[in-house]
Amino acid sequence: MELRDRVAVVTGGAAGVGRAVVSALAGRGAVVLVADVDGGRCAATVAEVEAAGGRATPLVVDVCADDAAEAAGRRFPDAAPGEWGRVLELNLGAPMRLTQAALGPLRAAGGGAVVNVASGAGLELSPYGSPEYGAAKAGLIRFTAAVAGLRERFGVRVNCLVPGWIGLPRARRTGRHATGATRPDTTVRAA
Questions:
Q1: Domain for residue 67, yes or no?
Q2: Is the pLDDT of residue 166 over 90?
Q3: Quick check: is 128 catalytic?
Q4: Structure pTM?
Q5: Per the residue annotation, which of 76, 84, 128, 133 is the catalytic one?
Q6: How far is residue 166's CA from residue 35's CA, in Å, rounded to a whole number?
Q7: For 156, what's the count of Cα atoms within 13 Å in the CB-facing half-sphere?
Q8: What's the pLDDT score for residue 168?
Q9: Are residues 93 and 1 in the same domain?
Q10: Burial 62-85, CB ≥16 within 10 A → b, else e
Q11: 71 belongs to a structural domain
Q12: What pairing do the DSSP bridges indicate for beta strands 112-117 and 156-162?
């Protein structure tokens, strides 16, 4: 796929999988908008891309549009609804709103693609250490499949990548991984 001079917006682009996606897109010639709540990491990611000859711009933003910090403490059922609700908002509500917001500009540009990133936690049927996260990612997978008509109406493809467990530092610290058998990475294509 030709990405030279295409514009890509990567939410959560300053760390983990998002940062890897930013590097890969910039390495293929895309102009990447690195959207993240962490300004310092956002700037460091942009500097890394530019040092490698790529093009990137930082955008410090909280995609949940509130001032709450990411819930990193208690989990369901011990956490209050506001604490686990934040996880649902970040991993399902925000991608839905961002997809909606992108439709007009992508249609005006002649079409494009939205790529959501879910998790194998959304496919598992076994116990999971963060049920609110698993539920949100399952919802994101279903949302992506449900919006297949956007391609016909707006010229926008919506896809969802579903990687298996990734041993990022936070996941290792909290033990947030599925206890069932590991599934291979999956791609859900809505259109």
A1: no
A2: no
A3: no
A4: 0.74
A5: 133
A6: 21
A7: 21
A8: 62
A9: no
A10: bbbeeeeeebeeebbeebeeebbb
A11: no
A12: parallel
The closest of 12, 58, 4 to 31, measured between CA atoms, is: 4
- Across 80-153, the runs of DSSP E, i.e. the strands, are 112-117
Together in a domain, 118 and 51: no
Helix (H) or strand (E) holding 104: helix 94-108
- pLDDT value at residue 118: 93
Q: Which neighbouring-strand residues pair with 117? A: 161
Percent of the chain's residues with pLDDT above 70: 82
Domain identity same for 101 and 179: yes
- Residues 169-184 have pLDDT tens digits of 655 665 555 444 444 4
Listed residues 13, 29, 62: the one ending a domain: 62
Unique residue bearing structure tokens 């930013």: 22
Residue type, 59: L
Strand 31-36 and strand 55-60: pairing? parallel
Pairwise CA distance, residues 178 & 181, whole Å:
8
Instruction: Domain of residue 7: give its range.
Output: 1-62
Do 73 and 48 touch, CB atoms closer than 8 A? Answer: no
Count of residues in the chain: 191
How many domains does one find in the chain? 2
The CATH number that applies at residue 115 is 3.40.50.720
